[in-house]
Amino acid sequence: MNSKPGAPMTNASDDPAINGMTLATTQKLWLTLALATNLFALVAHGQTQGSDIDPKLSVVVGFSFVPGLLDSIVAMWGILILSILLILNAAVMREHASRSGPTWLERYPFRLWDASPSLGLGRKAQLLAYFFFSILPLFALGHFWRVFLGEGKLCSEVTQDNWSPLAVGAHDFFHFPADATFGRIFGDYYRLAGEVVGPDACKDATTIFPVVQPVAMVLLTVFAVFVTFRALSVVWRGK
Fold first, then answer.
1. Residue 151 and residue 72: Cα distance in Å, rounded?
2. Cys bridge to 144: 26, 32, 78, 83, which one at CB 3.0-4.6 A?
3. What is the CA radius of gyration of the chain?
4. Block means of pLDDT (10 residues each) for the chain, length 239 residues?
């Protein structure tokens, strides 16, 4: 127990419930979100790399992408879902860090059973958890953007059920196509395709809203990265 009035809480038993949550609750909630974030990132990353990690992990997590789904579509969903998970993760991490201390090892919400986060095995676990749960997902987010922009193709409906691929690359996603109108942009007139070339390039593509959806994805990503680093700043420096 801390003897000085106003001293920071060092473990869950020192901390009363605030907004219905103790430190122990925030630690469990954060770990649940962190595991979900990393498992999703691994499954999606494995799918874009053609790895068999996807079917193996899907048995554990109960989630998988449709077999054969285009990498660019997996990357698009990877960006959207991973960004949301990172935002939730950061909110819980910041809540925990603002209520505990006095070192960053104690403010970081991971706990290896009852081991002290500042000593011995507990300290090593904190360092590994920090890298695995707070750094690797950001690299995964960057990977999904690379796949989305590098392999994604924008297909336009020329006539009914007749789709034609436009050029490859970021230019397509952040510039309105020449045939774009308000009605076409927000209708099912553009599709996101992937690495397939030739006459079947637009087969198995999914609806995308040019400019609008990619810009929304950028904003969501920027916000996710911002709140993550903001939460990590509270972990490192305290309130």
1. 6
2. 78
3. 22
4. 42 58 87 92 86 58 70 93 96 89 86 74 87 94 94 81 67 78 82 76 84 95 97 86
